[in-house]
Design brief:
By secondary structure, this protein is of the alpha/beta class. It starts with a strand and ends with a helix. It folds into two domains: about 200 residues, Rossmann fold, CATH 3.40.50.2000; about 180 residues, Rossmann fold (3-Layer(aba) Sandwich), CATH 3.40.50. α2 packs across α15.
Length: about 375
Amino acid sequence: MKIAILTTDNRAHLGTYRETMPWFAAGHGSLHKGFATLPDLEVHVISCTQQPMQSPQKIAGNIWFHSLHVPKIGWLRTLYQGCIRATRRKISEINPDIVHGHGTERDCAISAILSGYPNVLTVHGNMGEMARLHCARFGDYYWLTAWLENFTLRRTLGVFCNSRYTQSLVQPRARKTWLVPHALRMEFFEPPPGASVRPPVLLNAGVITPRKRQLELLDVAEKLHRRGLKFELRFIGFIYSHSDPYVRAFLERIKPMEAASYVRFLGMQPDSELVHCYDSVAGVVHFPTEEAFGNVVVESLSRELKFFGSRLGGIVDIATGAPGAELFAQDDWDGLTNAIARWIEQGCPRPTGAAALMRERYHPTVIARRHLEIYREVLKTRS
């Protein structure tokens, strides 16, 4: 089977055009690793960029990579007309059996449904819900992407949903949906260190934004510190703009806490260091206001860590049945604070058994095989 995957190269997304190797959001890149274990597949990954970049012809033995230069005028301001046309030409050359558009945030979904080939989509972030949360105004980014999401979901043959939460939002607008979670990076399946006692260190990983609520977690850290508890809360994550008011408030608020040695901000960490970031702590806290899936949750549980999180979105799917996972209502700050305090007072015990469950559910080969089953189902119904 020949598959065309439309996805976002993070070099283009983050403007790091000088890098010579494409890299993708965690779930995308892990899926490619899964496809690479299925030799009967021929996979073509297609990604649009506003500036030409040096790229390899192949990223695995059976996976080709195509970087398409599309001038700025061909992006959102023209509803991705340049991306649609460039992608359509490349797909016509490849002549795949099926086209899979990853994400409704940018050009991938609209290019997939207008490719002229049988197509399916994956929803990663729920743009309609994001527009609601951001109180989107007519014509702004969230309003436009929510409109495009509605347009594409109604026209594709089916939609891969990364959680039951996402599926509940997509089902009213799509012909068919399948529940297919993201794949976890291969390196997270290396055996985690033994359940030895670790220092009382908690990790929070994610882009510094109001939706991830890092600033509010500083309130939790301050309350724990006032109780006389010995611990450290580490933040890792990307900052889109240092001029953003939320980012400025976070960076200013954290200064005295860093001076008091109970909070640290380590900035964005390279993929090669992520596993070490998890393996050097005893627990993870992730308390967003909305979460379509929750890679942080899978990553932490795969390393046999204690997990504290919001009881919402895709977090619920991942944490269900997982040893060591505690969830709270999204505004239950007292419940979260008290649970962390008890855990610290008990010596920060680490659970066991979650890693095997994460492998069973989220290994790249497992997820890739599920994709292949669905592709065959779609093509069979059209034959």
